[in-house]
Design a protein that fits this description.
Elements lengths: L1 H11 L2 H13 L4 H8 L4 H11 L3 E3 L5 E3 L1 H18 L9 H39 L5 E7 L2 E3 L3 E8 L6 E18 L1 H7 L7 E2 L8 E14 L5 E7 L3 E12 L1 H4 L2 H36 L1
Antiparallel strand pairs: 1-2, 3-10, 4-10, 5-7, 5-9, 6-8, 6-9, 6-10
Helix pairs in contact: 2-5, 6-9
Length: 297
């Protein structure tokens, strides 16, 4: 019995001999030349060798054609059953067993990846829409001062406030209103020293002879583009007695909207583009998994 199984194993171990068995099982009988043509074999010695190795699995009929013996029919049935077991039983419902479980995992994983990828794209694109708003927001006010009302005597220059130094350029906005025309002076360190600091006084009995900026009027606005250094000082004088009701100074940074807009928006746009590509890649992988699960099912 063991020798019969060994002979059967040797006979069916070669794919050419299995093809011969399947051919004869399908056709019932085939001549030598028909077998050569069906197997696309042009070497008669090779075909003769395989026919000999099949031994008792094949036989010849009265017309000299090859047919399967009873043992050959059993061998063909065995090959057919093995082929069906490898490819899967067609009566088994799809989605069952290990293959079905794998396809379900692929489907679930693909759906999760698609959702995550879409969320990344939506969030990133929302940030891209809001980016110009943040990049073009109004410049930030660093600080300032509201000087209480005061009276100016004729031909007296009064020291008001120093403009503090800053590491970034800024605009100094000066506004005032008074009962009579006044002159507002922007002084540098040397000019302020000669009028006030050398005398340890906040008032001088003369008007400045030199200045950085000067504006006159009962009401006015003075906008000074200040580089941030060296320090500057504000003083005011009048040719007549005048009451200054309002004097306001504010410092507004100009670096963000006027100097760094391109760098502030280009770098985030590059990051946004990379994240969008990443999200699209995740969606693509998810779609591949979903399609793969359908083919597996």
């Amino acid at each position: 019995m063991a020798s019969d199984w060994n002979s059967l194993y040797k006979a069916l171990a070669d794919p050419t001999r299995r093809q011969i068995i399947e051919l004869l099982y399908t056709r019932g009988a085939a001549s030598y030349t028909e077998i050569m043509a069906a197997l696309n074999v042009d070497n008669t010695g090779k075909l003769n060798y395989h026919l000999r190795m099949l031994g008792r699995l094949i036989q010849k009929d009265e017309q000299g054609r090859y047919t399967l013996s009873e043992s050959g029919v059993h061998a063909a049935s065995l090959l057919k059953s093995l082929s069906q077991s490898r490819s899967g039983d067609p009566t088994t419902p799809s989605g069952s067993g290990a293959g079905g479980g794998t396809s379900l995992l692929r489907l679930a994983g693909g759906i999760v990846l698609i959702i995550v990828g879409v969320l990344i794209i939506v969030i990133v694109l929302s940030a891209a829409v809001a980016l110009p708003f943040f990049a073009l927001t109004s410049p930030s006010v660093r600080g300032g001062a509201n000087i209480p009302g005061f009276t100016l005597e004729p031909h007296i220059t009064r020291f008001l406030i120093g403009i503090p130094t800053n590491s970034l350029p800024e605009k100094v906005n000066i506004t005032w209103s008074s009962s009579a025309p006044v002159s507002v002076f922007v002084l540098n360190q040397t000019q302020a020293n000669s009028l006030f600091f050398s005398k340890a006084s906040t008032e001088a009995n003369t008007t400045p002879t030199s200045w950085v900026e000067k504006t006159s009027g009962a009401k006015g606005d003075l906008i000074l583009n200040y580089s941030g250094a060296p320090p500057l000082y504000l003083a005011v004088s009048s040719n007549t007695s005048a009451y200054v009701q309002r004097f306001t100074v504010s410092y507004t940074s100009i670096s963000k909207p006027e100097q760094s807009y391109h760098s502030a928006i280009i770098i985030p746009l590059i990051v946004i583009a990379i994240l969008v590509v990443f999200g699209l890649l995740i969606v693509y992988l998810g779609v591949r998994l979903v399609r793969g699960s359908r083919r597996a099912a």
